[in-house]
Design a protein that fits this description.
The longest helix is centred in the first third of the chain and has 26 residues, at 6-31. This protein has helices at 6-31, 33-39, 42-58, 64-77, 88-95, 101-114. The protein has one domain (6-114). It has 6 helices and no strands.
Length: 117
């Protein structure tokens, strides 16, 4: 029987996160070159991605597509976009524990699109 120890799981998760961070950093550079430059390049963009993912998981957003959308929202509107007065409604959605991560991200992305943001 195969037994995977917690230390091995942690190592696998860390490698997966590194790959995700690298892919998202490259995507930001390609899709948002101005914001990428403002962030200060690859290392700063990777830290940005790491910070945004941490915040997203605090709001129970875990799936990669949802994390990617959350990162896009943060790139366009600021790392702590939900703390802005004009986006206070986003904080309400994010704190709503009755909603799944995909629903939270979809509602926020949809409303921002309607607002041209």
């Amino acid at each position: 029987m195969l037994v995977i120890r917690q230390q091995q799981m942690d190592a696998m998760n860390a490698r997966l996160m590194q790959r995700f961070e690298a892919a998202e950093t490259a995507r930001i550079a390609q899709d948002f070159p101005e914001q990428y430059a403002r962030l200060g390049g690859a290392d700063a963009a990777r830290r940005f991605v790491r910070d945004v993912v941490k915040r997203a998981t605090d709001y129970e957003i875990y799936a990669e597509p949802d994390l990617s959308t959350f990162i896009d929202i943060a790139v366009k509107n600021g790392k702590t976009f939900e703390e802005r007065d004009d986006l206070a409604w986003a904080a309400e959605i994010l704190r709503d524990r009755s909603l799944g991560g995909d629903t939270k991200v979809g509602l926020i992305a949809g409303r921002l699109e309607l607002q041209g943001m």
